[in-house]
């Protein structure tokens, strides 16, 4: 046990360590000439020195194996790890060595992962069913204790588990963390070894083994070389050794699920960074005014650190809307200028919905609007700025109104002109009795006479609702998005493997695939139809192949 | 105005062809399988497909944006996606069980879109500012394509479940019973019944063995097809959700808002991710994964309709509530 027994390690290594065999991936048709090569792997193994072997074995020990059996067998040779060799096999150490592995294998358990996904889905569904972010009183009324939903569900549950803010509740976040842990564990303990096995290309040298595959066929009067050429034409990687053939296609389809998991982890990491390191803020600025970015932004988490760009001043040069012919709003635009501390303009851009401004990591979005004031000439005096107030009406359309007092402003019942506007396009005027007088466009300069008062609406000043954001997580999340899209697409590829053996003049073919189980036999039949039949007159050819 | 009339004409043509196709389908399945009729019904499907394509293109031309901005248009597009999924095996001369799922689904969706909704919904509407983006095309078309594929796949799984759990299939009474059943999977069942009855005629001797063999083969095939179609739908769903997230980051300032529609799309994604995972494990394969997929079927409908019916969240445009204003 204490010495490196070369034969034992070699054996061990032949069976267990798939990584080493990668070394021999020479796409070599010459193998077919070396008639009695036997195990070509053995030939190669003679060259590496003991040092190398031990290194490799540590590697294979470190990498978790596919099945439990391997784990046990690997642990029987702890001496291969230098440190463990000194301490002997103390049980405490063994326990510490095993504990993380056991933990990993529990985490990587598929039913557990499925359970996690189900509970996350259920919690999300619950999160959309329960109104989020209301005051506790709301839940007291909606989920009363004397009349619980489904017999048991009351406000106590909601407030105890934090279901009133489901997507930030500890239960939900905890499950997400658990899922991330499962993802890591599964990638490490299951997926990577599968890839190692998949990359091990092996010949099947017995007709029985080939016939055991999901798809089998035999071609009388055919040559395995012709088959190889046809498979290569169909995009397969083909390996030939003597009478045996091995071909595969779509190996990326086996690797891609790892990529999917890593992409998910990237997105989760980016999301965490977004949640802990971002700034947000929103502001409504009337046209012509300005604000400092740092005054608006509020930190979101403990990793939010202000940057120099916070001193930038934003000036709203102009806010305007585009309209359809029918009069409905088609787009909102805000002309913004950014000034640094010295008052120099560093950037100017007209933003609109779907086209935000980006400056030094700060993004400014057009999200809202309102009307702040009307400029009015009264009997050619003024212009007066009349502040507009939002009016509450049914429906989701906005309505703003203002009032211009006429006559004695100090008397108890002031009468005046009311002006209403839905957008910056047209203003509706009503007289002292509340009767409709007319509609004016701000830019028309057409006067309107109301009870002897001449009113000209000069301009309607809108204010732009802006959202500001700094989110350091976005690049990571986007990287994750890209990777996820790519790897999900690649995952659709099916990893197909084909084995063939020349048996006299007959070629026995076996194949399997992991995804496209229905298309694969069709494709195989189509390919095998193309294999040319060897006419009996040239027996020498098949002899060469066999010899 | 010409375009309006053209659209009307196309709607009527496609609907009348569809009704003929349905009749042929029913005749094929309930009375007797006539090969010629079956072929003509397939040709009818191609014609309807062309009509709907024309309809969507016309709508695109006169509204100036991709016809995906409200529920009617998205339903038409869903129906169109079903037709596409239906056409692909048809043109590749593959006979699959997908046909029995896609054809009725396409027909029902189209019928529902054309007749089930209020007439005012058919009018093309203008795009609100948030929808004016190149992402609209990518996001919505991907989502609806994925809905179509996932619905097909999960319906195949439902069919698989029905076949697996119905031990003794009484062929003739079943035909009568399923006559009125609206669920599209009944077509598969009937197809299967047809096969069995053929087998019955041919091989009276070992009827039972043949039946079991057919059944086993059918279940295998349904399983494979449903997983294949679902993984394709899953791919579209992933691309759709992610492009939606990127778009949201451009328009609303955050790539994920936990908006109800987003959340339900994510739930759908999770459910089908679970489905794909159950398929990797041999112990969970078969009816277990089929159960997950059938859950997915209902969740897609909640995601597609349910959230809009409530009219909550940022995806409320295109809902019923908005059009009643």
Structural descriptors:
heterodimer, A: 547 residues, alpha+beta, TATA-Binding Protein, 5 domains, 5-stranded antiparallel sheet, 21 strands, B: 325 residues, mainly alpha, 11 helices, 0% strand, flat, plastid (chain B)
Explain this structure to me?
The complex is a heterodimer of chains A (547) and B (325). Chain A has 547 residues and is of the alpha+beta class. In chain A, 39% of the residues lie in helices and 27% in strands. Chain A has 5 domains: 93-187, no CATH class; 210-250 and 494-535, TATA-Binding Protein (2-Layer Sandwich), CATH 3.30.310.10; 256-276 and 472-490; 277-369 and 466-471, no CATH class; 371-407 and 414-464, no CATH class. Chain A is built from 18 helices and 21 strands. With 325 residues, chain B is mainly α. Chain B is built from 11 helices and no strands. Chain B is flat. Chain B starts with a helix and ends with a helix.
List the helices and strands and how they pair.
The complex is a heterodimer of chains A (547) and B (325).
Chain A: H1 6-16, H2 18-21, H3 40-45, H4 50-62, H5 68-75, H6 82-87, H7 91-107, H8 110-129, H9 136-142, H10 155-161, H11 170-199, H12 207-211, E1 215-219, H13 224-233, E2 237-241, E3 244-249, H14 252-277, E4 279-286, E5 290-292, H15 293-296, E6 298-299, E7 313-323, E8 329-339, E9 345-352, E10 357-359, E11 362-378, E12 381-387, E13 389-390, E14 400-406, E15 415-421, E16 427-430, E17 436-440, E18 448-450, E19 453-470, H16 474-491, E20 496-503, E21 506-513, H17 519-530, H18 539-546
Antiparallel strand pairs in A: 1-21, 2-3, 3-20, 4-6, 4-19, 5-7, 7-8, 8-9, 10-11, 11-12, 11-19, 13-14, 14-15, 15-16, 16-17, 18-19, 20-21
Chain B: H1 2-30, H2 35-63, H3 71-91, H4 98-116, H5 135-165, H6 171-178, H7 185-202, H8 207-251, H9 260-280, H10 287-310, H11 320-324
């Amino acid at each position: 046990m204490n010495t490196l027994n070369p034969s034992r390690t070699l054996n061990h290594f032949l069976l267990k360590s798939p990584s080493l065999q990668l070394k021999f991936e020479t796409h070599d048709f010459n193998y077919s000439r070396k008639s009695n090569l036997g195990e070509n792997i053995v030939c190669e193994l003679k060259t590496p020195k003991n040092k190398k072997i031990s290194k490799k074995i540590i590697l294979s020990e470190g990498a978790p194996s596919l099945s439990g059996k391997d784990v046990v067998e690997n642990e029987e040779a702890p001496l291969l790890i230098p440190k463990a060799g000194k301490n002997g096999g103390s049980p405490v150490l063994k326990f510490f060595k095993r504990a993380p592995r056991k933990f990993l294998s529990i985490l990587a358990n598929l039913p557990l992962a499925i359970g996690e996904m189900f509970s996350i889905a259920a919690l999300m569904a619950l999160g959309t069913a329960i109104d989020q972010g209301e005051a506790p009183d709301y839940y007291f009324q909606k989920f009363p204790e004397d009349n619980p939903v489904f017999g048991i569900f009351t406000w106590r549950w909601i407030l105890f588990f934090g279901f009133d803010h489901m997507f930030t509740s500890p239960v939900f976040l905890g499950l997400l963390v658990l899922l991330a842990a499962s993802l890591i564990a599964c990638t490490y303990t299951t997926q990577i070894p599968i890839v190692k096995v998949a990359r091990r290309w092996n010949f099947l040298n017995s007709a029985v083994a080939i016939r055991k595959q999901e798809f089998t066929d035999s071609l009388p009067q055919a040559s395995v070389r012709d088959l190889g050429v046809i498979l290569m034409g169909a995009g397969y990687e083909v390996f030939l050794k003597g009478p045996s053939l091995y071909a595969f296609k779509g190996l990326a389809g086996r690797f891609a699920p790892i990529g999917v998991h890593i992409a998910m982890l990237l997105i989760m990491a980016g999301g965490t960074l977004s949640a802990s390191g971002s700034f947000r803020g929103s502001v409504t600025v009337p046209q012509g005014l300005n604000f400092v970015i740092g005054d608006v932004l509020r930190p979101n988490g403990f990793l939010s650190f202000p940057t120099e760009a916070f001193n930038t001043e934003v000036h709203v040069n102009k806010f305007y809307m585009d309209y359809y012919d029918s009069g409905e709003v088609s787009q909102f635009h805000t002309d913004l200028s950014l000034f640094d501390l010295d008052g120099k303009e560093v950037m100017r851009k007209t933003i609109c919905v779907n086209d935000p401004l980006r400056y030094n990591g700060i993004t400014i979005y057009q999200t809202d609007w309102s009307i702040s004031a009307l400029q009015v000439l009264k009997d050619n005096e003024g212009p007066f700025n009349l502040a507009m107030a939002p009016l509450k009406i049914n429906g989701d359309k906005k309505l703003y109104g203002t009032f211009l007092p006429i006559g004695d402003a100090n008397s108890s019942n002031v009468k005046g002109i009311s002006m209403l506007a839905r957008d910056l396009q047209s203003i509706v005027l009503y007289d002292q009795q509340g009767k409709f007088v007319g509609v004016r466009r701000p830019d028309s300069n057409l006067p309107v006479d109301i009870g002897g008062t001449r009113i000209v609406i000069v301009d309607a000043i809108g204010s732009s609702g802006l959202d500001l954001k700094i989110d350091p997580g976005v690049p990571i999340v986007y990287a994750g998005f890209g990777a996820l899209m790519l790897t999900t697409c690649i995952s659709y590829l099916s990893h197909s493997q084909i084995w063939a053996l020349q048996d006299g003049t007959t070629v026995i073919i076996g194949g399997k695939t992991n995804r496209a189980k229905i298309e694969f036999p069709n494709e195989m039949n189509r390919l095998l139809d193309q294999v040319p039949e060897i006419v009996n007159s040239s027996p020498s050819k098949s002899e060469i192949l066999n010899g | 105005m010409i375009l309006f009339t053209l659209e009307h004409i196309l709607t009527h043509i496609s609907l009348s062809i569809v009704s003929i196709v349905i009749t042929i389908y029913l005749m094929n399945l309930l009375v007797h399988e006539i090969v010629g009729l079956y072929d003509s019904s397939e040709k009818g499907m191609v014609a309807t497909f062309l009509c709907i394509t024309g309809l969507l293109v016309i709508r695109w031309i006169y509204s100036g944006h991709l016809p995906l901005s409200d529920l009617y248009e998205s339903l038409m597009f869903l129906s169109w996606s079903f037709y596409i999924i239906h056409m692909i095996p048809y043109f590749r001369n593959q006979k699959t069980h997908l046909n029995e799922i896609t054809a009725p689904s396409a027909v029902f969706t189209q019928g529902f879109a054309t007749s089930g909704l209020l007439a005012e919904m058919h009018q093309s509407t203008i795009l609100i500012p948030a929808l004016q983006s190149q992402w609209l095309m990518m996001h919505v078309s991907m989502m609806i394509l994925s809905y179509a594929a996932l619905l097909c796949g999960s319906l195949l799984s439902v069919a698989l479940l029905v076949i697996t759990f119905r031990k003794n299939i009484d062929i003739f009474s079943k035909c009568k019973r399923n006559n009125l059943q609206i669920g599209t999977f009944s077509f598969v069942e009937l197809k299967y019944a047809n096969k069995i009855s053929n087998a019955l005629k041919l091989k009276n001797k070992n009827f039972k063995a043949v039946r079991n063999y057919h059944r086993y083969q059918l279940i295998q095939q349904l399983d494979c097809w449903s997983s294949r179609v679902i993984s394709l739908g899953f791919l579209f769903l992933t691309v759709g959700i992610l492009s939606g997230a990127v778009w949201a980051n451009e328009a609303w300032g955050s790539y994920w808002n936990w908006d109800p529609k987003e959340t339900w799309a994510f739930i759908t994604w999770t459910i089908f991710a679970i489905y794909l995972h159950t398929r990797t494990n041999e112990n969970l394969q078969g009816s277990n994964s089929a159960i997950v997929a059938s859950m997915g079927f209902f969740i897609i409908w909640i995601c597609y309709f349910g959230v809009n019916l409530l009219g909550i969240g940022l995806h409320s445009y295109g809902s019923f509530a908005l059009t009643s204003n």
